[in-house]
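Quick log. Single chain, no ligands specified.
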Amino acid sequence: MEAETLKLLGKLDGHSVNPLAAGMTAHCNRVPVVDGHTECVSLKLRTKATQDEILAAWAGFTPLAGRQLPTAPAVPVQWASQPDRPQPRLDRNRGNGMAVTVGRLRPCNLLDWKFVLLLAQHRARRSRSHHPQRRVVGKPWQT
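-> predicted structure:
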């Protein structure tokens, strides 16, 4: 989960992603919800940043812009300023169900910043369910 978050915040370099160079810890809230995963993230940046700088970085994060991907949201990271957000039932449809909703950004006593994010991507799950992977029919040891 930690490596994937650093990848999501990294930079696209040709056909690969260079992860964000930052120290971080993460915790996934394993509670029964219908849509999404909620993560509590703490991170340490190489260079100190203000809350406004972090919000600007999230707002400007558009790694898939211009690639004409049908399910890619125009704004993949969306800030929720309310103190009780994100919440799966309220934020699952942001970016047509494909955006990451971030909220509760605050200073961290151990690292630099901490926040909560919601990754729903229910549209991606629906798409995969309509196109199941190929199954092996018969006995695989027979040719």
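The first helix runs from residue 2 to 8.
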